[in-house]
Amino acid sequence: MTDQKAPEDQLTSADQLATTPESGFAPPNRVDRMKSEIVAGGAVRENGDDELAGGWRGMLAMAALAGLFVWLAFVNVWIFIFVVGVVLSIFLHELGHFMTARWTGMKVTQFFLFFGPRLWSFRRGETEYGVRAIPLGAFVRIIGMNRMDDVEPEDEGRSYRQQSFPKRLLVISAGSIMHILIAIVLLFAVYSTQGEITAQDEPRVIVAAAATELPAAQAGILDDDEIVSVGGIAVTSPVELGETVRSFAPGEIVDVVVIRDGATLTVPVGLGANTGAAEDSPLFGTALLGVRSYSPALYEQHNIPSAAVNSVTDIFPVSWESTQGIVKVLNPVSIVGHLTGSNDDLSSRPTTLYGVATVSDDVGDSSGLGGVLYLLAVLNIFVGVFNMLPLLPLDGGHAAIAIYERFREWRGDSKKRYFADVERLMPFAMAVIVVLSMLMFTGLYLDITEPIG
Question: How far apart (Å, rounded) are the C-alpha atoms in residues 163 and 155?
Answer without folding.
Answer: 12
